[in-house]
Design a protein that fits this description.
Blueprint (H helix, E strand, L loop, with lengths): L10 H9 L5 H13 L5 H16 L6 H12 L3 H7 L8 H17 L10 H7 L2 H65 L1
Helix pairs in contact: 3-4, 3-5, 3-8, 4-5, 6-8
């Protein structure tokens, strides 16, 4: 890195920054959106990459979001970097909403009710790490519920990103054309003075 800190952040400082940024969330969101919009590629490729990243971040398979997002982006012709950045859609602030909505919708799709068959003792299941106990009552409904919610949110993000990337490209093209026109005018004036 060009500008590296003399004293690196401790583990607790990095964890705090991951949960709560130094600046505001709005500034962090603006920074990430500018990074996505400045990626090379067509507006479709960037928007498809963002949609792939958002879709996979809604699935309950933590630790595999980036891999799944890259695979989906590759298949649909999306930008791989955009898909990786968009997996940040799932973060500690959005996890409760994502998990709650996918679990409820998955239970409704599978069992016809928003309530489960028996109460979940998630703490006990996580301490003993038994996948067979986690799959049926928790992961299976979340995986099923994540598909329609993920498709809906990914479609919305595709439209937003596509229009933003197109507008950003058009604004940049106009700015570069204006700069080239000014340089050409300045060269013409300088050439006129040299001819005199």
């Amino acid at each position: 890195m060009l500008f590296r800190r003399r004293k690196p952040d401790s583990f607790y400082q990095r964890l705090r920054l991951w949960i709560w940024p130094r600046r505001s969330f709005q500034r962090s969101l603006q920074y990430m959106s500018k990074r996505v919009l400045r990626l090379t590629g067509s507006p479709h490729a960037i928007a498809a990459g963002v949609a792939a990243g958002v879709f996979t971040s809604i699935t309950p398979f933590l630790g595999f979001h980036i891999i799944f997002a890259a695979c989906i982006a590759y298949v649909i012709g999306g930008n791989l970097v955009a898909s990786t950045l968009a997996t940040g859609f799932a973060n500690p602030l959005t996890f409760p909403f994502i998990w709650g909505s996918t679990l409820a919708l998955g239970r409704f799709i599978l069992y016809g009710s928003f309530e489960g068959h028996k109460p979940l003792h998630i703490g006990h299941m996580l301490t003993h790490l038994r996948f067979d106990q986690l799959w049926d009552p928790l992961l299976k409904p979340m995986a099923v519920g994540s598909v329609p919610i993920g498709l809906l949110v990914a479609s919305i993000m595709y439209v937003i990103t596509y229009s933003a990337a197109s507008a950003f490209r058009e604004q940049r093209r106009k700015r570069l054309a204006e700069r080239a026109r000014r340089k050409a005018a300045a060269r013409g004036i300088a050439h006129g003075f040299a001819a005199e």
